[in-house]
Design goal:
single chain; two-stranded antiparallel sheet; membrane; Drug/metabolite transporter (DMT)-like permease; 332 residues; 1% strand
Amino acid sequence: MRIRLLLILVMALWGSAFASSKAAVAEVPHEVAGFLRFLGGTLVLLVVLRAPRLPAAEVPRVAGLGMVGVFGYNALFFLGLSLAPAADGSVIVPMAAPICTVAVSVLLGRVRLSGMRSLALFIAVTGGIVFFVGIPDTGDSRLLGDLMFLGAAACWSAYTLLGAPLLSRLPAATVTVYATAAGTAALGMVAVPAFGDVRWSELSLEFWLNQAYLAALPTALAYVLYYRAVGQVGPTTATSTMFLVPAFGLTCAWVVLGESIAPLQGIGAGLMFAGAWINTRPTVDDSVVPTAESGGVVVEDDSAAVDSTTRSDELNPSADSISSAADSLRAS
């Protein structure tokens, strides 16, 4: 129960990040907005977690994870925000990510789909088509932006799946710090050419406060809590809570930016939600192929495909400090 409450907190923070990031993109180029968010997030992580030790043999894997989940995701995410409403992104990314996770798990042989889950995949894909067909005719930029959001969702799914095996060997804090640092370095290289387009002296106090919020909460705290959850309940269960992000994201986009989605898009979003929800529910007739990541343990629910001997204190020595930070945030 406790870890699921932390996941809800993570989804609330990520939902708010769509509107906050859209506000940042309105003042600086999208490359710069993405880099500033994760530069601040990396610094916060390094200060709070004190640069945990990373074995040299794991450096390439963790760096590669950062290229996919931090650089790849955010390059597409912030580009999408510069082209399409934050409301679209708050639906596409969290709805598509769980579907991608299940689909890739099937292709890798980790999960055998039941008839119900196959039907759910069809429903979700149909919902995605309806959502894109329902995009208002406001030019090609919105469609292109929504496609960028779809690519970002694929990157996030890969980030989740590739990160799970690492958590059987490394603390969640270590993976998060160095994956974020690697991805941020790549974002910085892309952002440097756009620095000349920024009127730094004219940026408002609200802009910098927004950047501080994005760095400390949706980035630093949320990423650590998310990976802690993946290590304890598995990637599929963790991504299934992303169904909460659209509710938080659409609410923030409406309150902060005055955005909304079209009625036909709402129908498509509902179908995607239904399909994604069914696909991440445990079913009696699903069978999971044991893998190295699951410690060879055969389980009925793929969300439990984490070594039963792996405990939260082994995965994350700093779990107490992270939980304390989360408790403080909830208290405020």
